[in-house]
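Morning F.,

Quick status update on the modeling queue. The single chain you submitted on Monday has been processed. Sequence for confirmation:
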Amino acid sequence: FEVRRGSIPGSPCVHLGHNRQIAWGVTAALCDDADLYQEKRHPDDPDLYLAGDRWLKMDRIEEIIRIRGGRELKRFVRFTRHGPVISDFLPANPKSEVLALKWSAHEPSQEFRVVYGVNRATNWEEFLDGLSFQVAPTLNYVYADIRGNIGYALAGRIPKRSHTNSFFPLPGWSSDHDWKGYLPFSELPRLFNPAEGLIATANNRIADSTYPHYLSDLFEPPYRIRRIATLVQQNPRLSAADMARIQRDVISNHANEVLAHLRDDLLAISRDEPALLPVIEILLAWNGSCSEDSVAAAIYHVLHRCLILNLLAPDLGEKLASAYLEIMNQPLQPLARILGDPQSPWFAALGRRALLEKSLRAACAELDQKFGADIQRWRWGKLHTLTLSHPFGRNKLLRPIFSIGPFPAAGDGVTINMGFYRYSDPYAHVVGPSLRMIIPLGEWKNARFVLPGGQSGHFFSSHYSDQTELWRQGAYLQLYYDEQSMNDWPYLTLIPAPRETQKNS
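Structure tokens below.
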């Protein structure tokens, strides 16, 4: 029994990596596995709620939260047939109704059997058998083995709904909106040795419109997966070095798409407004590379943020527009479609060209204020920075000691080498590759990996941040596979407690 690569502290199993027969990777599937239910309360008894034509009693559990210093905080959590009542924790809770959350993760589960089964699997069938125990979250698993097979499987419990999906609360008193169990694991999307010879996932939409079941509307936009497919298909035989280049790729297909939509307007503005000509020339000559030293990437991302806020705020108001834009990847495609249609009613007030000019001026003013009038100093890495934060970093005095960074970061929210940032905190890099891994099947000694920080979470360890610079530069480490070399390593032996002790505990 031999398995290597990435684990979670405290887990005795490896969550993604390889054994002697197979290798696997994991991405978040982002399937819709939860619903909010609006529950009607009885006018005379707040613990009764309506289910059909009956009033049911809510279950109630007391939670005791122990606080340092000896204090205890007691809270009651109420449950309807749909799950815990989450609106009880809101400051203003309406008297007549409450909100309950139904989530597949509330079901009893055996996720440990998943990683244990996958670690021990030697073929596709055994691999699927392990995945069948996954409940939550939903995960994409990619598979390869030493016999040349590749596969993909979606794992996790996805509700079987009779109603049309809604992100609004559902009427909990009607059984029409209740889940009808879960989709069988055998009916979830999967692939094995597809004709294309290629399998990739990037949190993208898993199945097309021919798939008979609803999975989600929460998938990431397709820019990353399309870029991956383009790069992989350029070469019929890819080496580990080729895969490393793909993992480092920072071309933003989204930026290229938006600028293609706006190209004619930008050219017209450059003719009428000579002061904006230098930045427009930089944008139009750009290939979409969000490298740390890119001036165009800095101009584009500030322009895009100004543009979408100017587009939405007049009609939605700044507060609602900001809330909509907070998870920036979700609105990217709808907004790109709007920007691609100069006749869109969203441009009724100003027109697309005038809105673009206004936003471009605002973007230049913001960059000028931050970095000065010299455009060549407007570098994306100066604006887009990453800090690897330690929990102690919440204390301002300890933050510089325990945090790693800040340092310049490449990419954006839809590049393969992801550099996601939130609307409310531009342009701080908050989501990206937490583990890069390349495994040539059967050539295990040539496998490589890198973490953004280090192997240890202890600040005084030499391994606290020793991989950060490798990760930044796109370099990798290799594990020892020579057993003789490993004999000198420190090791930890786990010895089960005596049976009597186990029984008493």
